[in-house]
Amino acid sequence: MNVPFLDLARYLPGEKERLSLAAERVLSRGRFVLGPEVEAFEQEFAAFVGAAYAVGVANGTDAITLGLTALGIRAGDEVLTVSMTCAPTATGILRAGATPVFVDVSDEDLTMDPALLEEALTEATRAIVPVHLYGRPAAMEELRSFASAHGLALFEDCAQAHGTRLAGRGAGTFGNGASWSFYPTKNLGAIGDGGAVTTDDPEIAARLKRLRLYGYATRNDSQELGWNSRLDELQAAFLRERLALLPQANARRAAIAARYDAALMGAVRTPRTPREDQVDAHHLYVVRVPDRDAFRARLAERGVGTDVHYPRAVHEQQAFASLPGLSLPVTEAASAEVVSLPCYPMLRDDEVDAIIDAIL
Question: Which residues of the chain does CATH 3.40.640.10 include?
Fold first, then answer.
């Protein structure tokens, strides 16, 4: 049996009619940018997250940049974040004019370690950007308390957290705002690129709407320097259809993850057991093994596809090597060990069996 790590083509047959009807809605109206589909999706996605507002933008990286800019982050500011993430987290901070300062992660769940924030704090620190890595929530209660105590903005990177919850709250509702990516591989993926920022602050939402459209306060009147970063009508229409299917898709991911948890514990290092009040989005199912290359090669021989998220931490990449940060021993160790197993809604039960058998 050949089990691909991810096969996006499997999603389309079951969704084709819904997506075709969504495309027809857009084509029949002749409105392709910032029209009724974007407005409806923003309302529906905000309700799903549990936020007051959602503002659609072109992609997840822009969501970080525009979100931080709307919060008042600017050149000279420092933003505490993690290196155990994808490069766009740091890129978005840099494009807002600020400097990312890397803090190590907890060995238990590979999200930001709140105990290390004090050491990273300087007079220039203005914000914290935790990442809900692999769909697991960061320690938001501790991070929120620290941010409040030190007068810092708290902005969540939710690119992998569509449906993640902690203590009865959705990811993206703990801070001043949150960025979201709708890249096709995400739990809620577009048929192309897309992103959004969620917030409970009406002033931040209003500024985001200006920033995504040249800084316009009214048409052809730029109140401030902005971007051209708009979620288009077609992607918004597709996302509305997929948002309706997301709870079912996330439940399937959770079922697959539960099977991995039960079967693989002791054979490889599996993710930490979540808190009782925690719901993971299971964007990725990531194990840790000491000899990753050999492990992946053996699985490949048995027809099982795997991936690595991420083989090099952000601070180890040339473009970011000069950025400041603390010692990052947990990040560096994890980057050498993590392996992502197939975990997507269209994965069949017999394929899950084959993956487990191959690992054992």
Answer: 8-240
